[in-house]
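If your schedule permits, I should be very grateful for your opinion on a structural question. I have a record of one protein: its chain in single-letter code and its fold written as discrete structure tokens. Kindly check, if you would, that the fold set down in the tokens agrees with what the sequence suggests. I remain grateful for any guidance, and I place the record below:

***
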Amino acid sequence: MNLLFVSESSGWSGGTNQMLLTARGLSEKGHRIVFILPEGGVTAERVRAAGFDCRPLRIRQDYDIPAALKIKKIAAETNAAVVHAHHPQAHAVCLIAKYLGMSAPLVVTRRVIFRIRTNPFSAIKYRSKKIARYVAVCNAARTELAKGGVAPERIDVIPSAVEMSRYEDARARRAALAMKPPFRVGLIGHYAWFKGHDYLLEAARDILKEFPGTVFVFAGRDTDKLKAVAEKYGVAKNVEILGERGDVSDILAGLHIFAMPSLQEGIATALIEAQSAGVPAVATNIGGIPDVMLDGETGLMVPARDAAALSAAILKYFKNPALAGQMAERGYNRVLANFNLSSVCDRLERMYCEISGVKL
């Protein structure tokens, strides 16, 4: 089956990583994937390095009709059985391409849980029957799509995937890490207000009172902005800011605890990766996080915006290594069963076949 993946994203993110990861998985199953991406960005560079055909196109806005015409043309040239829009502007412009006569069915992925606007353009963008199917990465995203007027039968919940084999070495190294001071607590994700970095730094004050040697590790785009926040809370000397890194598995291998104190979150890919590496986790009970982690079974959940609860949960692990080990093992097993790349690609493949009529 020929598939056309479209995105306006030039920078690397969890969403672009998922796009490339599932393309690799689908390619291994015998499908041909062609990308449409902005020229010169990290995403296009990594897609080409992985050996995929990448057609250059900069989508400038939701109403970019020339871009829509180009997408229609490429879909025809590549004989695409399905066009899959992976980000918001790609969603809008691929829909315009459908109105301009693109024959391939359109799939749109929704990775965020923001409320869908109620203006007329938004109604067309989300409710149009020219969109064959939505992929919601978690139940919270499905709920928001339904609130926005999308018929439930047009929404498939298919989570983000993880390539488990990439984390086996990290898991082995993590298992050999003694659960004793000095502890290392990590948060991996770009710095944004809704990621909750500030709450972990606030929680660090209480944690350091009991375990003064604890180190708090932050990796991701723009995490250098956390230096001022760490100074504000008086914990700067116990903070490591790594910036954007490509060796996530190595970072996870050295962590005692993974923290995700988000205020809003889609499918929480970083949490899936942490559990793949066998790291016990603490996370807030919001958005798509409950899809990934079960409170008291595979991890510890706390309310959002509650630094005291966050510090208490982390301290609970510090004081009970057996509990930390149990949560890590159960978390790994659940990720293996529900979020491994092969399983997710099987679900995508079935959906593509259903909407395109292609039989494998």
Remarks:
- The first helix runs from residue 14 to 28.
- The domain at 164-338 is CATH 3.40.50.2000 (Rossmann fold).
